[in-house]
Write a structure and sequence with these properties.
The complex is a heterodimer of chains A (85) and B (572).
Chain A lengths: L2 H33 L1 H4 L3 E2 L2 E2 H31 L5
Antiparallel strand pairs in A: 1-2
Helix pairs in contact in A: 1-3
Chain B lengths: L1 H5 L4 H23 L5 H6 L6 H12 L2 H14 L4 H25 L4 H8 L3 H33 L4 H51 L4 H4 L12 H11 L12 H17 L1 H4 L8 H37 L9 H8 L3 E3 L19 E3 L3 H9 L4 H39 L5 H24 L5 H14 L1 H10 L5 H23 L20 H18 L6 H10 L11
Antiparallel strand pairs in B: 1-2
Classes of the chains: A mainly alpha (85), B mainly alpha (572).
Keywords (chain B): Cell membrane, Membrane, Transmembrane, Transmembrane helix, Transport
InterPro entries (chain B): Na/Glc_symporter_sf, Na/solute_symporter, Na/solute_symporter_CS, Na/solute_symporter_VC_2705, Sodium:Solute_Symporter
Subcellular location (chain B): Membrane
Chain lengths: 85, 572
Amino acid sequence: MTEKDNAKAYWKENIRYVLILLAIWFLVSFAAGILFKDELNTIRIGGFKLGFWFAQQGSMYVFVVLIFVYVRLMNKLDKKYGYDA
Amino acid sequence: MMHSLLVEGFGVQNWTYVLVGITFTIYIGIAIWARAGSTKEFYVAGGGVSPLANGMATAADWMSAASFISMAGIISFDGYDGAVYLMGWTGGYVLLALLLAPYLRKFGKFTVPDFIGDRYYSNTARLVGVICALIVSFTYVAGQMRGVGLVFSRFLEVDINTGVIIGMIIVLFYAVLGGMKGITYTQVAQYCVLIFAFMVPAIFISIQMTGNPIPQLGFGSQLADGSGTYLLDKLDGLSTDLGFNEYTEGSKSTIDIFAITLALMVGTAGLPHVIVRFFTVKKVKDARKSAGLALLLIVILYTAAPAVSVFARTNMIETVSNQPYANMPEWFKKWETTGLIVFNDKNNDGLINYVADEAKNELVVDKDIMVLANPEIAQLPDWVIALVAAGALAAALSTAAGLLLVISASVSHDLIKKMINPNISEKGELIAARLAAVVAVCVAGYFGINPPGFVAATVALAFGLAAASFFPAIILGIFYKKMNKEGAIAGMVVGILSMLFYMTKFKFGWFGGGTKADWWFGISPEGFGTVAMIINFIVSVVIMKFTPEPPLDVQEIVENIRIPSGAGEATH
């Protein structure tokens, strides 16, 4: 594989990770916390209505996890393609 | 009040002097230790900051007086709607970590206009970048100085202008002396101060009200009084009884909530003083990691804030609603003298009638005082109240310093070194950077003392502007190799102008003004950054189709920044 192909393949995998993670980012905030909040609010966990909880708590926890997952995935990917120097 | 009897001799004000004095001494000590000797140290702290230190500095840089003082207060009045700030000001870090920070670090420059100018091979693009950075940063910094003045005037009972000037001198000291290096390490200390100051009262009150020491869980728990009622249900009940919306429901339209949240997220990812922090780490992987750490450290405060809102709101309603005015505690009277609590006994019954109906409501409470007054409302010890003052100052000063650095670097590096006098020596540029910082502090202080009436309104404008200008230009610059200078410049200019038009029309009544009913698609000026961003993207792509491709060497640069290895030192 030439250097150019290598870079292309790396970029393609990176973009795939980014799209998947951004889909989750959208789901927990815009979908669960805003668009489908009323439906989720019929479910309760302790004192929290679920839609309200996603909007004011849950989405933020997931954001943190998403970034650390990306960090791990990319560190692995960098190694796989020899870009970890 | 037991505690005040025990420490009667010392009191809130003395505690505040002690705590503020100690923290300020620490900041100045760090500033002297971390003096900057080169432009590289001044702009990017030498480029060798560890991911954890950078994460803490970013968190302090990001969390301003607005996060520390205003946010929980706004949420406690807006209920569910307050989620736009919580999601908006944290979700932007996901965009930053996944789409911007690693590539900008690889690009290896000192400032955001630097990236814009080089990627779009054009000094016009650079100039547009400089103007945007200056507008965004100045509107933001004026609000910070005002926050400093407020805290001084309420807790140390000095004149608000004296407070602003004291704040100016402190910031001047470590920003001018230490540049990014001094700022980074003082911000690390400031993060510790502000998170401690925010969490201690939150934990105290959570235990008091629900018996749960973790505020994030406490506000979803049952009350500690053994009634078995959930705190949020009680607050929903109290709110509807007084004629307000249910706390967990809110009142804004779904499309507006959506637009504001997105505008704040994208604006966060496009703010130059946040982006520039990722130029200070060593490697591309450090940039990703420190974005994660920054968000983790921010989320500690951001998930506690809505809990504080619920505690404060419940406590406040229970303390004042239908109670005799004569029985109000000391904090009520103190805030009355600042004009931030106003009571007007319309029906002359001596009771405080706090209801949603404006004609009957007798009490107006400023949203900004909820966090500051919260420990007093909950009758916490004096040192906790003083701690909140020190924390608020840490939050305001750290953000002000970060913004001042962006302003000074834009002038000395992007304007003078890159456009006006490329032959300037390293020493000359460093002097210019320091002078620019001095001028910027003075301008910020002036606006802090004489706030233009629209400061509050223009804070949202800072996010809208960043969303409408930088975000699309940087994203396209990284992910769209064929994006050329014509497209990017046109996009930024049209994006900013449409944002300015909408804001001035609906906030200041220019261009014929308008009311809520006239909003386009029901989107408020705060949320219009989302629309302006989309306009920017569309204009950029359309113009690009009709203009020449970028030169091949620029396209190669874009391919190169997508590969993480070999991120050199930041260069001129």
